[in-house]
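=== RUN LOG ===
request id: a7f3
mode: sequence -> structure
chains: 1
length: 496
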Amino acid sequence: MRNSQPTPLDGSLAIARRRFLASMATSTAALGTLLARDGRLSLGQEPAFEPETGAGAALSELHHAPRAKRMIYLFQSGAPSQMDLFDPKPTMVDYFDQDLPDEIRRGQRLTTMTSGQQRFPIAPSKYEFEQCGESGLWLSELLPFTKEIADRLCMIRSMYTEAINHDPAMTFFQTGSQIAGRPSMGSWLSYGLGSMNDDLPTYVALSSRGSGRPSCQPLYDRLWGSGFLPTVHQGVKLRGQGDPVLFLSNPAGMDATLRRQMLDDLARVNQMRREEWGDPEIDTRIAQYELAFRMQTSVPELVDFSDETPETLERYGPEVTKRGSYAYNCLLARRLAERGVRFVQLFHMGWDQHFQLPVQLPGQCRDTDQPTTALIKDLAERGLLDDTIVVWGGEFGRTIYCQGALTKDNYGRDHHPRCFSLWATGGGFRQGMTWGKTDEFSYNIVENPLHVHDLHATLLHQLGIDHTRLTYQYQGRHFRLTDVHGQVVRELLDQA
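=== RESULT ===
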């Protein structure tokens, strides 16, 4: 009887066969990427640019013709006050220090910061508004530079969320869930669309501290984490001090040739473990070692602003060369976008104005107003805004009633998830429009409510993704960024 146990030759053939199949799979994926980049994969209609999924993409082709291929998300951590910046309520002047009517509050859940207050006195905004541009978009006097791009903005005044405290609300905006552990939006894009470059991460996170309340709400690495997706899709945070990426430089006594040899040997050992155990995280380890090697060259060039013109640097404002500032990160975001980074996430801390809003809010606006405007103009002039979505907004809004003592010159505002403002531009979003409406107290939405999942669905749609079809199976369930909710809001989009 023939022995059923494999002989050494049989085992070698099995290993060779596995290697051949693995190489064929890699070659097939690479061929698909090349065909997509050559425009040979039909998507049914002609997009504004050649559609493509990149290296490592879970999607072999896009679900429909995209209008954008990258995103820059300017996340304003701490929740900007909508009625002081974007949603003017001039009639509130007549309600100064009057209690918010019960029929407006409707028994809304309160935070622990104001649940013990005996009164909820109305605090009108002390800032003047004016209509800007041909669109007549209302903007606060605190945003003089943003007024220059008013006709480019798609202003959404009717955002709402389910979370009432910062950490779950920020987690919800980044991952589609208030509970930590889900993949972030950038990780979903990295997983679905893959990389557009060879020398930088697909997903980069940047952070800065504002001059309002710079130490208010902490940022956690899980906000740009990959959750249950393979860890190759997690965001890479570039540091604002010291080396942008730790351990990027070669240690003493090691040159590039020696490091290359070491990585080749390490890759062979890791590949042997991969064949033995079949753990996909080993693939991540191999890929990240290789990316880190290439970043030794690409990152120093990325953060070297010496090739920027004096006019460009001046446009971003006086802090543009200050490492870790919001202005610096805005210019860095443009440089990342033009180098093919798929998703850039800026976190700017300091918007949590509970007690001294008139003291703190102007500083926050000075941090962000000029650099944000410069970024939009810069992208537009370089032809990048057409296929880049830029989003500006925080995790929720602020209350019309005052937290703490109210005076003519000072007030604070508590968290408010029921309505707040956010804007988007580029990537096929309609320009110079205002969507949604709140009541005269900026407390409840009266027209066109837009949930966080709706926003996510719409953003993914512009990138060529049907949000219901980008899923990942984990613990027996298929997960997606929009959970089991979300509708594409086509009224926000340029249908041309």
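=== NOTES ===
Confidence is low (pLDDT under 50) at residues 1-46.
The CA atoms of residues 250 and 259 lie 8 Å apart.
=== END ===
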